[in-house]
Design goal:
The chain has 389 residues and is α+β, with helices and mostly antiparallel strands. The chain is built from 10 helices and 10 strands. The strands form 2 sheets. The chain has a 5-stranded antiparallel β-sheet with strand order 2-1-5-4-3, sandwiched between helices. It has a 5-stranded mixed β-sheet with strand order 6-7-8-10-9, with helices on one face. Helix 2 runs antiparallel to helix 5 and helix 8 runs antiparallel to helix 10. The longest helix is centred in the middle third of the chain and has 64 residues. 26% of the residues are buried.
Length: 389
């Protein structure tokens, strides 16, 4: 930081404020990485959160394009210098990472890196992540920084001290974000459990009364048609009340994240989870989508979830791509997989709908349309279009 002392304190303050502003774990990780890279003038930055199986539950990079990241391939494993930082919980500052005996190489599409600075992120005695930077951008006499990979001034002891401060605050921000997400999950689970009990009690009582009244009407049809007619009117009233109970429950069960974060953010978050949980690559792309009526957002989320479930559980795909784009005043949702596909006509004849009927019902219920395109060996594409508000 010696080459820009006047801006150092302000930059640290800005980075710490940015970290404390987010509550979602993924957002916190991205902010930490971007802040570290900018603060220390590095070409690349990354942060890995280890899992219990020798890999990383989450791995966030900055300075690498999405295209480069896709070309690099699967998430890295805990090996070499990354493993050393995680297991020994010690910082690593290297003039050239490629010359370190622990270096094990990287994929062909991986950018070349030389000078390296890495620190573990610790919560007490537990190492919850590894934060590292590569390729220090050094000022040249002409005033432009070095941007090409390879030699340079390298990271300094002052850089290490600064990154250590950032790592300590990153641990707090990350721990708080995890607690927030866990708290929200528990709140949602408790609320859904409560609603499930209420729904069961209320609707069960209505259906029981409905059954008894229908039986009474059937017994009176021949000997007292007038009374039978009255009982059937009561059946209709009870059925309407049961339908109202169900509709109220559906409204209350609308995902909390959708209410708080909107459709785009909710879909992106869920797809990131699925991408980490499955061997298939699951991606999300979106642009220009305006806020839609609540019923339409709910329907689109449910259709996306159903389509993703079908693809990941039944289609054996390598890739599943979800996109959500503005379409006139409304939106167009597309879920495409490169899995084994199916013949929609055969599925209908066999009485197996793979959720297609419910998806079409959801689309039609909000004035939208659903299109399913699939054939054996050629994957499946599901499109849902809604008109907007």
């Amino acid at each position: 930081m010696s080459h820009r002392p006047s801006s150092g304190l302000a930059a640290v303050s800005t980075a710490l404020l940015a970290m404390s502003r987010h509550l979602e774990v993924r957002d916190v990780l991205k902010t930490i990485v971007a802040s570290a890279r900018e603060l220390l003038d590095a070409e690349y930055a990354a942060l890995g959160v280890p899992d219990d199986h020798g890999g990383f539950a989450q791995f966030v990079v900055d300075g690498v394009s999405d295209e480069q990241w896709r070309a690099i391939g699967p998430l890295p494993r805990q090996h070499g210098i990354l493993a050393s930082m995680l297991h020994k919980a010690e910082p690593e500052r290297l003039a050239d990472v490629r010359k370190d005996p622990r270096f094990e190489g990287w994929p062909s599409a991986h950018p070349d890196m030389s000078d390296f600075l890495g620190l573990p992120i610790q919560d007490g005695e537990e190492t919850i992540g590894a934060l590292f930077l590569a390729n220090k951008r050094c000022p040249k006499p002409g005033g432009s920084p070095r941007t090409e990979s390879g030699g340079g001034c390298g990271f300094t002891e002052a850089d290490e001290e600064l990154l250590s401060i950032l790592a300590q605050h990153a641990a707090i921000a990350l721990t708080n974000a995890r607690l927030y997400e866990r708290s929200r999950e528990l709140t949602i689970a408790e609320e859904r459990s409560r609603l499930a009990h209420e729904l069961h009690d209320a609707v069960s009582q209505k259906l029981f009364s409905l059954r008894l009244t229908a039986q009474a009407a059937a017994a009176l049809v021949d000997r007292d048609p007038a009374r039978a007619k009255g009982e059937l009117q009561q059946v209709a009233a009870l059925a309407a009340e049961a339908a109202d109970e169900l509709r109220a429950a559906v409204v209350e069960l609308r995902p909390a994240a959708l209410d708080e974060d909107g459709l785009v953010h909710t879909l992106r978050t869920q797809i990131q989870v699925l991408d980490r949980a499955h061997t298939a690559r699951v991606t999300f792309d979106s642009a220009g989508v305006r806020a839609l009526p609540a019923a339409q957002e709910e329907a689109m989320l449910r259709v996306a979830q159903e389509a993703l479930h079908n693809a990941l559980r039944h289609a054996q795909p390598e890739r599943v791509a979800v996109s959500l784009f503005r379409h006139g005043p409304g939106a167009l949702l597309t879920v495409t997989d490169d899995g084994k596909g199916f013949d929609p006509r055969t599925v209908r004849r066999a009485g197996r709908h793979l959720g297609l009927v419910s998806m079409r019902d959801r689309a039609g219920g909000v004035g939208g349309t659903l299109t399913v395109t699939s054939e054996p060996g050629r994957g499946t594409t599901i499109e849902m279009e809604v008109p907007g508000g």
